[in-house]
Write a structure and sequence with these properties.
Helices cover 64% and strands 4% of the residues. It starts with a helix and ends with a helix. InterPro entries: EF-hand-dom_pair, EF_hand_dom, S-100_dom, S100/CaBP7/8-like_CS, S100_Ca-bd_sub.
């Protein structure tokens, strides 16, 4: 597989790993999202200054208001975060 195909497979695998915790493989609960962020994106929440960070992230990701984050909502989050990282590193390289 190509690097991009591997990356896509990894995103699917990470989502599935955490979504299946409560038996519903189609969506992440708030607790599952918290576990995913803490283990898979530890630097994303590393500042620890905002105690409501998980609640805010969850609310923003739950686009349809069903109290779950489905795969589409999760992928939008990963893509947005990736865009922010890309922009950050472009700016750093330009300095």
């Amino acid at each position: 597989m190509s690097q991009l195909e591997t990356a896509m497979g990894m995103i699917i695998a990470v989502f599935d790993k955490y979504a299946k915790t409560d038996g519903n493989r189609q969506a992440l609960t708030k607790a599952e999202l918290k576990a995913l962020l803490e283990k898979e994106l530890p630097n994303f929440l590393s500042s620890g200054k905002d105690k409501d960070a998980i609640d805010k992230v969850f609310k923003n990701l739950d686009e349809n208001g069903d109290a779950q984050v489905d795969f589409k909502e999760f992928v939008i989050f990963v893509a947005s975060l990736t865009c922010c990282c890309h922009k950050y590193f472009e700016q750093k390289a330009a300095q």
